[in-house]
Amino acid sequence: MKKVPNILTAVRIILAALFVYLFEIEAFTFAGAAFIISAVTDFFDGLIARKYNAVSDFGKFADPLADKILVFSALILFVKYGITPAWIVIFILFREFTITGLRMVISAKGKVIPAMLSGKIKTTIQMIAIIFILFLVIDSAGDAAMMIGWKGISLAVANWMLFGVTLYSFIDYLARLDLKNNL
Question: I want to staple 12 with a disulfide (CB 3.0 to 4.6 A). Which of 20, 57, 66, 121 is the partner?
Fold first, then answer.
């Protein structure tokens, strides 16, 4: 059981690539299924790793990387198809690079910055929002112009959720990192 979380993380990375391929050939239903399965593996690899004390250095590195590959694959495709504004994705990228960079600098000084609850909440809500957007994409056959009325409102709410939860997590991390004493 100790290797299962790492296998699930590797599967998640493969599924992210499959998701991109399926989305690009406009097999939106299958792309959505690949994304959902990948998101579910994220839940189970963490659960199994904690339950069986199967936390590994590979997992500590690859698990958050796999999450970012999956989320950014979807968000970049959403920008390409006119579904999510680029500024939201740029802000999410900015948050990820900033927090990761700060954690690396602090880590180089021998201090460990553990994952914070707000980061886990961010990832969970991002995955849920992306899945919701994927359902809108499937229903609209990938045509952003078809997302009008309730679909357009729902899409706007999901995009603002992506931004809002990322902003919340960013502010929370900055407040808790105690930059004055850690840099």
Answer: 66
In the chain, which ranges are continuous DSSP H helix? 4-24, 28-51, 57-80, 86-108, 117-139, 150-176, 179-182
How far apart CA 155 and CA 4 sit, in angstroms, is 35
Which of 43, 52, 53, 55 has the alpha carbon at shortest distance from 114?
55
* C-alpha closest to that of 176 among 110, 104, 117: 117
d(CA 155, CA 149): 10
- In single-letter form, the type of residue at position 59 comes to G
In the chain, the amino acid numbered 155 is L
Whole-model pTM? 0.90
Cα–Cα distance, 91 to 69 (Å, whole number): 16
Q: Burial level of 158, CB count in 10 A (0-12/13-18/19+)? A: buried
Does domain 4-182 fall under CATH 1.20.120.1760? My reply is: yes
Q: Is-contact 158 129, C-beta < 8 A? A: yes
CB-CB neighbours of 124 under 10 Å: 14
Task: Give the pLDDT confidence of 106-135 residue by residue, as tens digits.
Answer: 888 888 777 789 998 999 999 999 999 999
Domain extents for the chain?
A: 4-182
